[in-house]
Design a protein that fits this description.
The chain is built from 5 helices and 11 strands. The chain has 176 residues and is of the alpha+beta class. Strand 1 and strand 2 form a beta hairpin. The longest helix is centred in the C-terminal third of the chain and has 35 residues, at 141-175.
Length: 176
């Protein structure tokens, strides 16, 4: 599924690339995604050789609230809406784009999904299973700790954004 290649740039430098589904991506592009930040190319290659690349059509759910958390997703292309069922309705929680990860909080704490994630447009994602991450732990424990720290930071970022939205709704309610 993943094949490391190199491509000569305009200045004759060689940039490592990884085949990701039907496309090649620069290792530096993957490393710029928050969940992969700081990981070295060898660890990324090891992890992505085990990962799945999924294409999901608009309107399809990656997972639903209450499902068992078995993986984390990294959005390569498209838009995803994270929603939560509340009082019989789906409430928009967060809109995600290229490079964002989702589903990480539930995987970290071994809980059922607390939200649902739906493709707003056709999407391509990297799906990292708990088994993929465990393989990284066995092979490269330091890189495993790094990706888990990155997932923790992403969880904090999602929570901070949720706090801002709640405060914004409350301030609109108070002034309305």
């Amino acid at each position: 599924m993943f094949t490391p290649t190199t491509v000569a740039g305009k200045d004759r430098e060689t940039f490592p690339r990884i085949q990701l589904g039907s496309r090649h991506m620069d290792v530096s592009t993957l490393q710029s995604m928050p969940v992969f930040r700081g990981m070295h190319a060898g660890a990324l290659e090891f992890l992505l050789e085990r990962a799945s690349v999924r294409r999901v059509t608009r309107g399809t759910y990656f997972y639903r609230q209450g499902d068992e958390a078995r993986s984390v997703f990294v959005l390569v292309s498209g838009r995803v809406m994270v929603v939560r069922a509340w009082e019989g309705r789906e409430q928009a929680f967060e809109s995600l784009g290229h490079g964002d990860c989702f589903g990480e909080a539930d995987l970290i704490d071994f809980s059922a999904r607390t939200t649902s994630a739906r493709a707003v447009v056709d999407c391509e994602v990297i799906e990292l299973s708990a088994g993929d991450l465990y393989a990284l732990y066995k092979q490269e424990p330091e890189q495993f700790r790094l990706i888990y720290a990155n997932m923790g930071r992403e969880t904090c970022r999602h929570l901070r954004q949720a706090d801002y939205r709640v405060l914004n709704v409350e301030s609109q309610t108070d002034s309305g």
